[in-house]
Design brief:
The protein is of the alpha+beta class and about 160 residues long. About 25% of the residues lie in helices and about 50% in strands. It is elongated.
Length: about 160
């Protein structure tokens, strides 16, 4: 009997939580800028500017995110950010985050580029956004995102330096 009294509230709690779901569409994340921030012997830091679009009819209260940048199908850099960003419904916002890569990863990318004839960098940015809402499910299950694209290496190096 004592076990039933303990189990009953637990079952009721699980049933109540099953009705709470977060039905937001994943935000659309795109890279709008990347620059070397710091280069050391074993690690490089990059400043990545992201444009985050909210396609939902409710605001997104981003409390943080984690992300990985793959270049030419190889993991290149990763990072985390705890910079909050509030994006109203059907709006967008910019967020600057830091990426870290190892020297070994950079060398491997340069070797791979040396073999290519078109000098096109194909990238994939993937990660998870944690929301700062009161919705229990949004705290437990971050929203995944992924974007792909390509950058022309010669155009990157032809840009004017500031």
């Amino acid at each position: 009997m004592k076990h039933s009294l303990f189990i009953l509230p637990f079952i009721l709690l699980l049933t109540a939580c099953a009705g709470i779901t977060y039905h937001a569409e994943p935000p659309r994340v795109s890279i709008t800028g990347i620059q070397v921030q710091e280069a050391q012997l074993l690690e490089q830091q990059y400043l990545l500017t992201l444009n985050i679009q909210n396609p939902n009819e409710t605001a997104l209260y981003i409390k943080g995110l984690s992300y990985t940048l793959d270049i030419n199908s190889r993991e290149f850099a990763h990072g985390v950010s705890n910079h909050p960003l509030d994006i109203p419904a059907f709006s967008q916002g910019k967020l600057q985050v830091t990426l870290s890569s190892s020297t070994l990863g950079l060398v491997q990318q340069l070797q791979h580029l040396g073999k290519k004839t078109d000098k096109e960098l194909n990238y994939r940015l993937r990660g998870k956004i944690s929301l700062g809402t009161t919705d229990l499910m949004a705290h437990i299950f971050p929203i995944p995102f992924e974007t792909t694209g390509s950058m022309n290496l010669t155009k990157i190096f032809q840009q004017k330096k500031h």
